[in-house]
Amino acid sequence: MQRQNTRNLILDNMLWFIGSMVLAFFVWMIATFQSDPIQQQRFGERVPIRMNPDAGLLVTLPTVANRQASVVIRAPNSVMELLTGDEILVTADLTGLPAGEHTVELKASLARQQTSIVDFSPHQMHITLEEAAQRQVPLRAIIINEPPAGYSRDEPTFNVNLNQVLVSGAASKVNSVVAAQVELDLLQRRNPIEVDLKLTPVDADGNVVTDVTLDPQTVRVNVNIRRRDDVREISVRPNVQGTPPEGYVLNALSYEPQSVLVSGTPSELAALADTLSTQPIDLSSQTASFEVSIPIVLPNPNLVVISGQNITVSVEIAPLTTSRQFENIPIKVLGLGTNLSAILVPNTVSVLVNGPQAAVNDLSESDVNVILDLNGLAPGNYTLPLTISVGQGEIAKEGVSVLPGEVDVQIIDNTIPTPTIEPTPTS
Length: 427
Known about the structure:
Structural class: mainly beta
Number of strands: 32
CATH class of the largest domain: Mainly Beta
Radius of gyration: 48 Å
Number of helices: 5
Helix content: 10-25%
């Protein structure tokens, strides 16, 4: 009897223990879920679809950029935040498929525990398989611009055997490649060059062929550039003589080109000075800016300027300027209505004139007019701007200022009698 009671006690304790463990597990699950809830959401970026055809075949369609899938994932929030695209696998089994067009099923899986894929899209994909091919194609250099006049070049050379590179890819693409080319701009090159350039596969029409690879992808190109013995580049300058008339000044002078190419025998070119001059440009009668095309003077009739016989010279001539101040210039009133009079404060002003020296020196006070326009104004008090004119147009408006620029005006109606003040009688 005692043994039976002991057994029942042990059994009861076991049941309580198991119940406690189950209850603790559920409590732990609830706490975990509350602190790290399960999330279901679409992965933030599209996942590449992995396609591995049999040896000798290539996937040509869809292109690599279009082999992507959208995936919906279920996982705890802490796991979801750490998940990367490399852990999501979307694959297409191409084993045993021959060249041609096929529709294949896609499969998706996750490499991380506590995660699952709820859905993904697309579930299948149309593909095109082609046989892989490779062959040697020649190198070609395209000269976009030749070296400057007066310089010559040799044909470009490459640092690869037989001037050929290996092109690889789908057979249809590889067969359309006729050359791997580089482009060279030699317009500013005056010395030999050695440069590494990226190769571009092109077809018979010069169009770029995509989705093929070249081996090597870059080549070193050498071009020997040298000065021609029968041409020399010489600086040139305009032959300016005299000075502008009194009251004018030479402000600036520019010309193009600043150097020319001269052709002749090596001995004749060697005897040339470093700088050539033009025919004379006389400034003694010039009072305004001008532009002229002027020939270059060659010391030897056997020499020829092959880049153009003339240079274009731009000459900027401006009048000397001065300033002058006129004091106590009376203000002329215009537009005052009938039976009206005006009181101005002040009624004279100072005028400062800046302009060409000759024009300013010839001015007199009678050439300076300061005008106040009262057209349409009724009796009252006003503050009004002044208008200034100087001379016969030789002085620019921007060169004239008046002090002060405004005056106070009282316009009076003369038909209204002025009130009089009666004297206060004395007792």
